[in-house]
Fold this protein.
Amino acid sequence: MGLASRAVGMLGVSRGVPLPSLWRIALLFLSIWEMDAQTAVETKPLYIWQTGPWGRCMGSECGPGGSQSRAVWCAHSEGWTTLHTNCDQTERPDNQQSCFRVCDWHKDLYDWQLGAWNQCVPVSMRSAGVQRPTVCTRGEEGIQTREVGCVQKANAEPAEDAICEYFEPKPRLEQACLIPCPRDCVVSEFSLWTHCSKTCGMGLQNRIRFVLAPPLFGGAACPNLTEFQTCQPGPCEGEESLYSLRVGPWGPCSVPMPRQARQADKPPTESDNPSKESETLSKEGDKQSREGDKQSRQSEKTSKGGDKQSREGIKLSSEGDKQSREGDKQHKEGDKRSKEGDKLSREGHKPSRPNKKLGKTNRKPDRPSRQADRPRRQKKAKNKEKKDKMREKVRERLRERGKVKDPETRELIKKKRTRNRQNRPGGKSWDLQVGYQTREVSCVHKSGNVEALSLCSQQSLPVTFQACVMTKDCDVTEWSEWSACSKECYDPNGPKGERTRTRKVSQFPIDGGADCPELEEKESCSPMGDGVPPCIVYSWRTTEWTECRVDVLLSQQDRRRGNQTGLCGGGIQTREVYCIQTSTDTPPKLSSLRSKEAVRPMDSDLCLGISPNTTQLCHISCPVECEVSSWSAWGPCTYENCQDQAAKKGFKLRKRKIANEPTGGTGNCPHLVEAIPCEDPSCYDWLVVKLEECIPDNERECGPGTQIPQVQCVNSDGEYVERQLCRDAILPMPAICEVPCPKDCALSPWTPWSLCSHTCSGKNTDGKQTRARSILAYNAGEGGIQCPNISALQEVRNCNDHPCTVYHWQTGPWGQCIEDSSIPSTNTSVGRTRGDDASCSVGMQTRKVICVRVNVGQVPPKNSEDVSQNDQSLECQHKECGRCRCFRKRLYHNTQVASGPCPSTCQPGGNTKKKQYRKRIIIQLPANGGQDCPEMLTQERECEAPSVCHGYRWKTHKWRRCQLVPWSVRQDSPGAQETCGPGLQVRAVSCRKQDGGQADVEACLKFASSMPPLTQLCQLPCQEDCQLSSWSKFSSCTADCVGVRTRKRMLVGKSKKRDQCKNNQMYPLSETQYCPCNKYNAQPVGNWSDCVLPEGGRMEGQLGMKVQGDIKECGQGYRYQAMVCYDQDNRIVENSRCNSHGYIEEACIIPCPSDCKLSEWSNWSRCSKSCGSGVKVRSKWLREKPYNGGRPCPKLDHVNQAQVYEVVPCLSDCGQYVWLAEPWSVWKVSNVDLKDNCGEGIQTRKVRCMLNTIDGPSEQVEDYLCDPEEMPLGARNSRLPCPEDCVLSDWGAWSPCPLPCSGNSTRERSASPLRQPGEEKECPPTKETELCKLNSNCFHYSYNITDWSTCQLSDRAVCGNGIKTRMLDCVRSDGKSVDLKFCKQLGLERKWQMNASCVVECPVNCQLSDWSPWSQCTHPCGLAGKLWRRRTVIQAPQGDGRPCPSQMEQWKPCLVKPCYSWRYSAWSDCKSEGARCGEGLRFRNVSCFVSNGSGQQDSILVDDELCGDLEPSVDRDTPIVLQEPCTVPCPGECYLTDWTVWSPCQLSCVSGDDLGFGSVQVRSRAVVAQDPENLLQCPEQELEARPCTEGQCLEYKWMTGPWRASSRHVWCQRSDGLNVTGGCPMTAKPMADRSCDPPCIKPRSLCTEAGVCGCEEGYTEVMTSDGLLDQCTVIPVLEIPTAGDSKADVKTIRAFNPTQPAASGPGRAGRTWFLQPFGPDGKLKTWVYGVAAGAFVLLVFIVSMTYLACKKPKKPQRRQMNNRLKPLTLAYDGDADM
């Protein structure tokens, strides 16, 4: 409906349209609609096939037999799956395919093949949306691709990628890359304009530039390198020369044909048509001109392959030819022509035959002269016949003489002739053939066309022939047999030998022929076979280690350096290392025996591998000092020997024990027993152990009674023994006692007897003991026993009543071991079992034993303990087995410091006698009386004179006669009838030894310098030539630097009469020189050298031990500065000219190192705890820091930076300090009952802290040392019992609490009744109990182990093995340390180790080797040469040892020598002799120059004799080339210049960063034109680039000059300062022209960079109100305008745009500004007031400071300084600067 209605509407609208057209429109719409519908159906099918991924390849076998499948289904276009029948069955994809089943072993058959990366494509070209950057800085990012495929390794056949992907993933196919920015071509600035190519008429001027950098990466091509401009010097007077004579290159050298061949080839004589000749010549010339450019381009390349010998020959001929040196111009020209031919003959051009037509043409004008010379030729023929007859006669005479001579003479003559024949040119090695070569001459028009020769008007044509030598290649013989192997022994592990074979030269290369191949061939070899002996092998051997030395580890301040006896601990020992020869087949047993023998050492260089160490750390066991316990108490008086009790006197003994195991046994311990004589000795006695309770007599309850003692039998040592041993001793009687009755006085028991006041009794001293008791209760008034008085409460008795005479035995050291003949010799086998060389026997040692009385001295033995100890003996081993062993070291020579064998071969250049020395090394020191070592361990002697060197040198033989070009060639040239002109002569060379003997030529080729030239140019003088004598010697000078000297020569023969020879300018007959001015002055040059100690400053310790203490490494030395000698022309000369030895030396000081200096150790502090484990401390103070590389300080305390602490744990015996309480004082009753003397009262007593000893408390100490918890009470309040009250004793000790502590357990204490109570009275309880509380009265105990102490060394040790200790402590549960007995009583386990060995790192100083010998000079000549010597670290520093010095190498200057070198002069202009253009030669000279070798000073020309010893080379380029072919362009010809030198190597960089594209350098050839008409014929300019290494980064930057009016100069400059074209980005080019709108037309105005008008320097701008420049006025200094001035304000442009830079006028850096203090209204501006205020403040400040500085200071009060030495406190940060 919609469509119908729309159609009706359309029809309705177009009623006016005819019906047929409407029908056509409707049909058109219907067809379009149908086509759209069909297209929609075709592009969008409803059902499509879809597939899944292929599955795994399955199969039974590996390889291509597998199969894989995939899922295939039918889907609707909207994505849902449907039936297969809905899809087209013909288009159904396969669901199965064959595949390759990959197995693991396929990895070896297949691999990825990687293709090369393709060109980098910009990302912008691959991606449509990415735009390319407009400005390129570093480069453009790109992508490059490559092909990657899986292939078979064997044949590279492609395979499926799935095979290779099975083993490794497919490599990437593309990668990012960088496309560098395009680099435009960079060229230099133009050179100056050349001269006009013509002297008249219209010519051209050229200026050229060269390429500095080639265009890279698509950059702009190089611009034209040449610019032309026309020039016209003036009109030409005559016609311009249109034709030029051009010579071609020399053809190849050819040998003239035999006469018969020449006559056979000679054409019949007939007159030829000149026009044909010219036509032929023009054709040939045209051909030559076409080939000329090609040949000229190749001329340089071909000239480089020139023959070395002939070039040297050129040089030699130019030096050796007298006539050429005499300045004969004709001879020089001939030489140059011959040189040219000699050079060009080697250039390999195609042979060009002599132009016969040219020869005919040239022959016609010469016929009349030939006819005129015919009589002369006939005369010469007659003279030749006469000469032949004379020669025949001379030969006959010689034959007759030869018949007469004896056979020996004939044999000598024959040998000489044979030798001469061999040395003659043309022998077996030199086949020299002199030939000739020709060149063509043509006439060329300025347009380049070749014309007839007749058009070139020239008097004589150039020479077209010259002599030459036929080129021959080198020819060699067959190889010789292989030589014997250089190694004549068998060593499978060692290096192989060499064998050689040679071949000889049968034909040497002549005139640029092919060089000779290698004449010697080498290959490695190793001899095999039964008869080949084994090789000698060199190995290292060492001596025995020296004794361990500790003294080398001591610091400078160590006091033990003065007394080194008894040092122990860590040390250093050394040994010598030497090289010996051993054989590879030595049996092991034999080698072990040989190693013990003294084997002669060899040169150390023969031993390969690292040599053994020469130093090592060692340890001397420190002797353990004997430690003894304290003395025991004096024992009872006992017999000397209890078995023999006959003596009446006895001894009281006290003893001590050895507490450790001392080194060397107990023989060095002090005496362990001291004795005192006494009376009534007894060996056994009764000891009262306990007194029983007092039992009253008569079985009463109180009153007097007795106490029965409990006794035990003891010996003199206090040990319990059997009771029967005391049968002779008096049994102790029962003690009388009293039990107080209730009314009696009650006394306390007696205290124990005190310590004896003296250990012995003398005249003035008696030993006393006291005891006391106190009153516990007073008696009743009646009937009771009264209390004694106070004196009766104390008792005193004598003790230690023996005299003070103490004796002990003292032993001496054991004596020498003396052989005991009484012992049978069978015991000597003991020595042999130890492997000693000699037998050792058994001997006896004795020592002396004496009796000593303390504080008196030796006494007779009768008073002593044991008389039998007066003489003691000990069996020992008597040894006489040690002897000194040493060996000799081979002779070595000693030149200065270095050593080596005497030269076995010759020594060229110098007859200085060298010395050699030998030394022997001690390998075993004498011991036990063995033979001493010899005193002389070194020997020295002079070397014998070495033999003469068998060097090789070339010997040159006489030059042969000068050979001209053959007559058949030159007969047609003018003057050919005369035998003269340039030629060639040859000679032979042979090889000689230095002593003159003959040698093979191959020896000189290998060892001698380059071969002398075999040919040289020569000149046979013609009759018209001028001949001169040699120059005379220069006349003598009267004085240096004054006058002149001359030399002369004269004309010889007919030359005196010829006018042309009298031309003094061409042939000067005298030369004048200024007299030499020899003035020399010496100047110092360079820096001062290092401070060098004089040689021999070292000292060697024993056996070569070098330690820092023994080496003189500091003190006074010398430093050197080189001297250079100059002559009056400031040229460097030898130092001998200035009478200088080449150095200035001055004394210098190498500061000695100073070690860190500390004080001695302080005493150990007291243990921090008096009971249990604590610490004790000792310290050192810093006295001086180390400097100059001294031994550093140890780590210092963090708090006090000037102290070093050492802390060790300590254990204090808890019983060493005890409280000692005196008896209680008498009661002081406070509540007095005067009747009964009882009641409340107080008792006091003294309590002191005492040092406890073995004999009991001995002396009072500070109370803090005793345990305050255990301190007894010093006063007590109590009740004094009244009469008849019960009196109890003091409470006993508390019973121990049962462990473990618990709240239910108790402890108790008890007291015993001393006086029973009266009637109706009772005693108080005698027992007390209390609960056990943990950490109150009940404690647990456990062991506590302390930390390890620092490693403790012996006082005699510096380092090495020590002992670290820790302490075991018994700790109570409340943390208090108590006596160890509490833990021992509990039986606690002790499983800890209290001592452990440890090591203290030794402070090993850095040990250095000797200085090496001085090296060779770093530069053979010049000012910068240095001699170096070095040393290495033998022993690196360890611990706190002295560090290695930083200076491991030293230098001093070499002797300054002049640097002579050959230098080329500039090439001369190219000249073609005899012609105006064509092939020619250019020449240069070589001269001797001297320089100082620094490269900063230009070389100066000197006499050539000074370079006589140098190899003939320039800049290491041999041989010297003094001429080379060149091309002279013909007038009007357009040609290319020579190649420029290669530019410096340049990297592709951005801002100094290398982009990684490598370096490149370039050279170019520019075009030079001579005629404006030929510009179209010019060749293209050429450019060559090549990669290079070690390039530099060069940047380009725009530079601008000052503005001049509205323009300025803008140019591009390279970073090395070179102005260039190209390289700078054009987008960043600064503006070169500027303009202002409106234009700056005011006077003194200019257009600034900002585009506005400004004023010149010195003028300021006056602006209008709208900001335009009104006028430029001179800047006023202080100009105050009037207030009514209506003129505009004076402002600067800066006010409008202050950010714009100032315009720079010509020659100024910026604008000068003036301060204006007044404003436009005439008032001062605000800033003026501010400046004035600031100036006032500054003035006040200056005055105040001046007053304070000049004020007289007060005298400081001096403080009274305490003279006590305070400890040094330094701010020290450890080892940071030590």
Q: What stands out?
A: The mean pLDDT is 76. The chain has 20 helices and 98 strands. The radius of gyration is 63 Å. Residues 958 and 987 are 6 Å apart (CA to CA).
